[in-house]
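[step 3/7] fold_predict: job queued, chain A
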Amino acid sequence: MIDEELTYAKVNREERFYCMLLAHCLLSNEPARQGFAKVVEDNAGLPSMFSQSPELDVYVEVAALRDFWRELGNPGRYDEALEQARLDFLGKAIDWANTLDLEGAEGCAPIPSDVREKAPGSPFWTEGRNSGHKKKLWSPARWSIKRLKDFPLSKPCAERLMRLRWAFNAKPDILVLEGRNGILIEAKVESGGGSNQEGYDQLQTQRDILGLWKHLGLPGLDGSISLATLGKGRELAKGTPHLTWQSIVAEIGEENMDRFTWGCFRDSGVLSINI
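[step 4/7] structure written:
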């Protein structure tokens, strides 16, 4: 039997929900922004980035690489100028990938420039069902892992391309900006950083995203942005600055939250905030 005194606020375990609440707090009033800025300022692992009365821009589920790629033009349409714009964008992304220092692969050849050509079996281009099909360049987010593995490239080159694919696919939880300074946050309520047998590492991917934003010169995202994790207690990854739900909620305070938001943080069983 379920305890009739339980509420959904007490049993909710969804990370995105708590990220939404935090974003709501930061956009609602200045004291909440000041409280958050103080927690960031007090973290020895993070540079000073916010003013005393910060005007913050807050984004959740940040898919900037995907969205700027889409802004180049309709992915369902073929147009020579559009394809050239995509090739130029991808070329800059590959230039960045070639700067990656892969462990145990010193001196390996860079990804060749001709990798973007319309070769048979290429993971970069669409495959039509008829001879009249005009191939279109895929977003890196849609590259086939199997075709990347099967394509005739060295293992280090394939690994660099996989890093690009993961970066274009990822959606970091929260981005908080003031001008050209900011913090990209990977938030957790239960789990640690994700990884898989293919070599994917969630926090490495977040660092790759920041590197790509800067290298590609994405407007508003190419400034000084630091990566941090957010969780319940101990740090999630050695060397990555860590914030806690406890410290942020306590510093913002009940008086700077609406009834619902405060109640959700206070009653959350998964966050275990001690107020």
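[step 5/7] annotate
The mean pLDDT is 89.
Residues 80-97 form the longest helix (18 residues).
exit 0
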